[in-house]
């Protein structure tokens, strides 16, 4: 008898830069991973875009590799990827166009026409919980195809979001899921809990695949295979799943990276005009309930300003990684001072006013935390929040975490770490379909910061 095979779930995590495949065992430990990057190609206008064909081949290639390994028994497969990208499929499942980049410039005139017809940009943005972001509003990409390439639009059987296209490659089923529809696509009317009227008027609803829950699974398209295939998830919503499954008291998750996104799944109050102007929007959970979110470009600002400090004091930015909080410096820098809340405030501060790089770096974090607190405050609601979890880069920053705990004195603040939260979310959401064990309660490592 050979040794028994390990039951696993395979998760494809497709980012803009890195495409990864993970195998998780029943305790959610990574037992295999493979990473790929491929060259971008160009669309018909010469704009850079993802190479769909490379992506398709890479999915099958990676699957062949793991199916060949006899130590694993693959029970299920799921997908997570960035949102805001549509694949236009014929009824035989062939893509009709390149995978347009969500940063592609959007024709001003088309956008204006749509906004004017439906109450103006502000009303339209409030209804769809989507700040006006051009191609980042994926629904507008479909509108563009309809208006500018009617011959292609006519041959589209379904326009599917990227995570659902990946799922389709393995299941042969075309569906839509709420996490993709709900992220700044301008498709969904959050008040009516249905597609916005414009989607129906333009006949686009007929080109959108039927909606299923994010925890839905299908059978694989290949004869004789027994594994289940998940419908796929939008990455920001997927990263929230481990927290939703583990914590039931109201919390906010601040997911930090280039963007610091504050997510409150316990706030269903509609957006206000002010919140919209300050970059608030709604995401959706896999169950289709709204998650109020605010975005701050703080990781990017941190990188810029840290470099400015390093250059001024002639040190490398690597030195900042190990700076522990010094409360005497904090006291000196904040005593009797009002710190502005705007993210770019520190860029105007003259660095020659600081004694050394430690002091300047403390000041930078004081400013960033001030902006972060203002951003996070936008998603608070009537329900009392018990905890704030911080994951990603800033969760490892001692100054940032301590100052955040001080700012939110009556709320428990935790640095949360979990390897590959996005991929684990996609595995957890279909737990019952592949895993014979209960969901472990130690997936997320927490470190408490006292005020």
TrEMBL record:
The keyword Cytoplasm does not apply. This is Sugar (Pentulose or hexulose) kinase. Belongs to the FGGY kinase family. GO terms for molecular function: D-xylulokinase activity. It holds the Pfam family FGGY_C_2. Coiled coil: none annotated. Residues 249-431 form the Carbohydrate kinase FGGY C-terminal domain. GO terms for biological process: xylulose metabolic process. It comes from the Bacteria. Keywords: Kinase, Transferase. One of its GO terms (cellular component) is cytosol. Residues 9-230 form the Carbohydrate kinase FGGY N-terminal domain. CDD domains: ASKHA_NBD_FGGY_NaCK-like.
